[in-house]
Amino acid sequence: MAMAVVTGLLGWGQGALAQDIKLGMIAGLSGFGASYGASMQQGVEMAIKEINDAGGINGRKLVEDVADDASDPAQSVLAMQRLVNDHVDIVVGGWGSSMVLANMEVAERAGMPYIVVGASNPRITTKRNKWTFRILTNDNGHAVQLADLAVQTLHMKRIAVINDSNDYGVGARDIFIARLKELDESPVDVESYGSNDKDFTAQLSHIAAANPDGIALMGTLPAVPAILNQARDQGIDARFFGPAGLSNEAMITLAPEASQHTIATAYFHEDLDPQAKAWADKYTAMFKNAAQAPRPSQAVSAYRGVYMAADCLKKVGTDKDKVRLCLKDWHGHFFGLPPADLHFDDTNQLVVPVVIEEVQGKGFAVFKPAH
Amino acid sequence: MPPQILIGGLGTGCIYALVGLGFTLVYRGIRMVNFAQGQVFMAGTFLGLFLVQTLGLSAIPLLIAVPVISFAAGWLLERIVFRRLFHSHEVFVVGAIGLGVMIENGIRAAFPEPLPFPKIFGTGVYRFIPGVLFQKTYLWIVVITILLVILLHVLFTHTRRGRALRAVASDAEIAGTMGVSVSGAIGFTFGLSFAVAAIAGILIGPLYFVSPDMGEMVGLKAFSAAVLGGINSVVGTILGGVLLGLVEAIAAFYLSTDYKDLFAFAILMLMLVVRPQGLLGRVVPVKV
After folding, report:
1. Alpha-carbon gap, residue B182 to B23, rounded angstroms
2. Does residue A345 sit within a domain?
3. Which residue of A has its CA nearest to B116?
């Protein structure tokens, strides 16, 4: 990975030839989102290696240009601009709604096909989008399913909400609460925090006072496991559940006991089909000794994004407008998700299901309502 | 207000106080602000984590080993880096910030993501007041902070080395002519400031995760604490740290956690405008 970063920094100094097809990869490889960004980078690396080993794209090699946006919206704009200046043929990546909302504007202006694989705020996909496509479920999908699950399946009566105050957390919270209201429920307490906060005593004291039986947690690492640990330390034993920000194996590493039975919506589970299992095994073996431990659920979207890009690049070449039109018409299936015919809607949002999972021991298991 | 909030605020306040002491010690010695203090604190946590993982040290040996190593690192860095920056405050400040960035990124290269720190102070909770949980780690933070303040007091008032440090702080030129080794005293001061910040790093480790950016905000808050209490006063800095921790916790509970940092820095601004010498700081007359 370090090598890829260095190559990225040096632009196209080594290895890249004029006839190569350039795939830009943008994500936070530093800053608070680093643990997600590093996994995405692994997913991209794996897909590119497989594609090149199988003969490349119509005989042309696919090469990667990495741009680290430091999990910061302002830097994210510069990182995307650098990829545009580097004349990449397509961009895959984007982690964090605040970052993507900022950098997609650059892609739209530059006419750069951009496949978003790591941000779920609904505002990312609107009818205005021409060049930006998203291949994961937006927060509407996650938050509505979570509200239904909490009320109808788990029969929770006193639900508290704690959310990151960024675009991701606020977006998910608002949709979740709106859905609760449709189900004739309202949260007993709503708290928010900053992405870089370390101490959540104040929010958790409010939550403890509200005596909830379930807590919706809309956020990402490293805050999520810290909240879980501190909640248990404060004697809060309500069950936590939340959208895909929680579907990160690092959450279990950082909160091994406190995270048990936490429920998350996810973009992948290896137990859903044999292809998913085979992929997860291959991926895990490939990055077993990497600086960042392999995390299939975090790497898979980026992997899928590269294959989707390769599909279109194979069909129509590198003309950006043709690539864009090809993506709009893309139909297919993703392993590791409930079966469905996947396609983009008129906002360039892929219509794609999620899987619900639960922490059991050292990993995630597919959630079974009877549990 | 739940007493839980005050306990959290007190714990955080002690950490600000200890890291702030690093600022104070250096400021008293050379009238300059070492903005790498937050990163020294962070490096102390990583050093602690390394020693726990490789040698399996428990709490007490760790609280001896980490400050000793950090003292040596501070003394050495003063010889190699800081000493060459003393000639102007601007150069020193920029140099210190640069050093902080280097420490942070150096550690990030090896540890890119947050890591759990072992619960070296135990996982138990005390219930001195019914319904209020007092985590063992918080108790350690408070007790170690008090012990350190007593030790520093004894060092400064009852030892030859401490009196030499105070003499240099008061007037380096005259202290020098009286036979005090000024460069030795300044090296010692840097060592001490590193050691204190590193202890704060170990104390906070088990409460939160360890990550390379953990020193940024703590460093700024600790600087605010030192300015609030009086950057040339040891007692003032301790008071400033604890006050800042408590105010932050109370503001977070009653207003919003979104404005917690705003409060810390609003206090800093207010003090700089209204009482630049801080609550307990002295105005040092300019000698002509």
Report:
1. 19
2. yes
3. A254
In a domain, A209, yes or no: yes
Domain with A226, as residue range(s), is 140-266
Rounded to a whole number of angstroms, the distance from the CA of B149 to the nearest CA of chain A is: 25
When CB atoms are compared, the residue of B12, B115, B258 closest to A192 is: B258
Sign of the alpha-carbon torsion through A321, A327, A330, A335: positive
Residues A81 and A95 in one domain: yes
Is residue A298 located within the same domain as residue A240?
Answer: no
The rounded average pLDDT for each run of 10 residues, N- to C-terminus, in chain A (371 residues) is: 44 60 94 86 97 95 96 96 97 96 97 96 92 93 93 96 92 95 96 86 90 96 93 93 91 94 94 94 94 88 97 96 96 91 94 93 88 47
Measured between beta carbons, which residues in chain A are less than 8 angstroms from residue B5? 201-202, 205
CB contact, 8 Å: A209 with chain B? Answer: yes
pTM: 0.79
Record: contact A193-B108, CB cut-off 8 A: no
Q: Does A205 sit within 8 Å of B5, measured CB to CB?
A: yes
A49/A119 same-domain check: yes
Q: Which residues of B touch A196 (CB under 8 A)?
A: 213, 217
Tell whether A123 is covered by a domain. Answer: yes
ipTM exceeding 0.95, yes/no: no
Q: How far from B30 is each of B72, B76, B138, CA to CA, in Å?
A: 19, 17, 33
In this complex, do B257 and A202 lie within 8 Å of one another by their Cβ atoms? yes
Smallest Cα distance from A222 to chain B, Å: 7
User: CATH code at A255?
Assistant: 3.40.50.2300
Number of domains within chain A? 2
Within 8 A of B108 by CB-CB distance, chain A residues are: 30
Establish if A235 touches chain B: CB-CB under 8 angstroms: yes
